Amino acid sequence: MKAEAIFDVRGQVAFITGAASGLGLSMSEAMADNGAHVVMTDIDQANLDIHVARLAERGCSVEGIQLDIGDLDRLRAVINEVAARHGKLDSVFANAGITSGPGFHFPEWRLEVYPSEMWEKVLHINLTSIFVTMQTAAVHMKKQGSGRIIVTASIAGLRSEGNVGYGYIATKAGIINVVRHAAMDLAPYKICVNAIAPGPFLTNIAGGRLHREPEVAKSFAELVPQQRLADPSEIQGLALLLASPASSYITGTVMVIDGGQTAR
Ligand SMILES: NC(=O)c1ccc[n+]([C@@H]2O[C@H](COP(=O)([O-])OP(=O)(O)OC[C@H]3O[C@@H](n4cnc5c(N)ncnc54)[C@H](O)[C@@H]3O)[C@@H](O)[C@H]2O)c1
Question: Cα–Cα–Cα angle for 142, 73, 133, nearest 5°?
Fold first, then answer.
């Protein structure tokens, strides 16, 4: 088979959260540049408008919907509306996520003083909202007997990582096992559910710290055997793989993309 047939996403309706920046934007571009109709959603209306307009200008089929995934009723309503309007939902990228303070190397972020408000906030966005995204998508995908759910987790969900906070570690680990569980649940309906576990990518995560503070970026890069942060475009191959026929027999997995960091 030709590569273009194996990785064919033409005509798909793809729904992506956190699509106005970083990995969500890059995955939106990968899908849209290869012929999918991409529903780009983000809490940040201004950046969403800019990127939807930019992609539309180069001939992509895209639409933008402002959405805070923390508002669970609206999250459900938006997914249902998109599925109803397009008559299907082929791939859903549950990607939006937030950080939860730096790691325990900072005294104010150690276990015994970790702020409970931060814990609650990150659990709601990174775990509950992702769960509801998956749950709502599953209703439509079960009816159509096909679908791909792709969750952006993190290598911080696979082991301890001193650079990030407790809430982040907990939610990324938690969502990885939700992915495995949902993959078993949905396998009879020809729905594949997988997680992506990135290492450090140069995005606007943590309020743009990696761009603003070179020493912070360096401290992350030093942990990577390739000695660098990844460019957001380097996620595109995995996005296409997991949304396309190429991955028809891949479900319940965690795809690590980390420049070798977890192999250490
Ligand atoms: N950048 C990395 O190094 C890295 C590593 C591992 C995992 N991740 C994960 O990748 C995902 C994307 O992060 P990124 O690095 O692209 O960061 P980013 O900040 O560049 O992009 C995240 C996008 O999500 C949006 N967002 C934030 N909260 C939202 C909400 N409540 N509702 C809807 N949209 C919201 C932001 O507006 C932003 O556009 C996250 O789940 C993150 O945890 C990132």
Answer: 40
